[in-house]
Amino acid sequence: MALMVNPQPFSRDVDRLFDAFFGGGEQQSRRWVPAIDLVEGEDHFVLKADLPGLAEDDVNIEVQDGMLTISGERKAEHESRERGWYRVERAFGSFSRSLTLPDGVDPDAISARFERGVLEVRIPKPEERKPRRVQIHAGADANGGTPAVEGSATETK
Questions:
Q1: Residue-range domains of the chain with CATH
Q2: pTM across the whole model
Q3: What is the DSSP letter of 131?
Q4: What are 131-153's pLDDT values in tens digits?
């Protein structure tokens, strides 16, 4: 006894299975936004961004007007096939993520490294702005010498 399979209904079933699993028959365009974590340490912040498939040259980090911006582009990898299934689900394109830095962060002290598709940016915390006590010198000017202007006052009735 031979088992006969009609290729047309089977093909439609496979189409429905793929559509149900992958979310629709039409190709959906997706905007790529890399995932980012920001963690606070004792004396610094650590920003980590998942950038799979990118190299160091594909990523740009800028600090301007108190804003840190990470940008780059993941290029599309298209291949054509004459037979079989062809589906593109990985998102690609340009991205840009920005965050406002705390006041007083030194942009020159920010460092970054890129390893195995993960970008790590270390942002040192600004030094606390402590009030500075000004010493008052009695009977002398601020430099410790004699007063610059001398005078006297008398009371009149």
A1: 48-77+89-126 (2.60.40.790)
A2: 0.59
A3: P
A4: 678 888 887 555 555 555 555 56
